Amino acid sequence: MRKTKLFLIFSIFIFFLTEFSYAQEPNLKKILLDIEKGEIDKARILLVSLEKGNPNSPQVNFLKAILSDDGLEAAKLYREVAFSAEENDLKDVALFKLFQFHYSRGEFSESDKYARMLRESFPQSEYVTYLKRENPSTKIQVQQNFEQKILTDTSRSAPQEENVTFQKTSKYSIQVGAFSSEGNARKFALQFSGYSTKIREKEVNGKKFFVVLVGDFESEIPAKNELQVLKDKFKVDGIIVPSY
Predict the structure, then answer these.
(1) In a domain, 8, yes or no
(2) Which end of the chain is more exposed for a tag (fewer CB within 10 A), N or C?
(3) Is-contact 173 225, C-beta < 8 A?
């Protein structure tokens, strides 16, 4: 009888230990939303904690990717998450991030490939719903109709401008979007009331885009701080680029 009681007590202890561990499993998709709101410290603290247990896990790679300032390195980490043999609930968001990355670089066949993989592998994902909302035809025809907001990480390339003269007034701006139509770029810029905005031409892989720049900053630090404000206030993403 004593052995039976001890076995039951041990079983109950294991059950609660398992339940507690499960409850402590971090919700990284929520962490992603926190980061988009500017709460980056939470992710950094969680990353340090997770790295101690399993430094090569999809969760660790995912956090490293969303915290990385290097777009190419982030894309590499997202691919590791998306194609990991280990089961995880981050594969759909990793595919979506890869879609966004290639979309922003003008690599349309690659972005379409990842969007298609996302729709086929995770038809119930919230990110598929987002794709359908942004692309009602459910087929991303970005090569023929590129009217939606994109971001590029090619900011260091020389700007392609014609019949435009301006003076450099500061060192940094926030690039919040790029459009194939100048009219759409100007309409998009109108939402940033209270901020100075500029429209500049840029060529990406042989295609001309009109990029929307917000603000003029003397250094990267105030630009990064203001970027977090823009993300929270206008629900947009952006990158810090040299002002030109």
Answers:
(1) no
(2) N
(3) no
pLDDT tens, N- to C-terminus, the chain (244 residues): 544 444 433 443 333 333 333 334 456 667 766 666 667 777 777 778 777 777 888 888 888 888 888 888 999 999 999 999 888 888 999 999 898 888 777 677 788 889 889 999 999 988 888 776 655 433 333 332 333 334 444 444 444 443 333 444 458 999 888 877 788 788 888 888 889 999 999 887 777 888 889 999 999 999 999 988 888 787 777 888 888 7
Q: Looking at the domain assignment, is residue 223 inside a domain?
A: yes
44 vs 24: CA distance, rounded Å: 17
Structural domain that includes position 63:
31-134
Q: Are residues 52 and 107 in the same domain?
A: yes
Task: Give per-residue burial for 108-121: e unless 16+ CB within 10 Å, then b.
Answer: bebbbbbbebbbee
CATH of the domain at 60: 1.25.40.10
Structural domain total, the chain: 2
pTM: 0.49
Measured over the CA atoms of residue 241, residue 101, residue 126 and residue 186, the dihedral's sign is positive
Please indicate, yes or no, if residue 58 is contained in any of the structural domains: yes
CA distance 134 to 147: 11
Please give the C-alpha separations between residue 24 and each of 50, 98, 115, 187, in angstroms, as whole numbers.
Answer: 12, 28, 31, 45
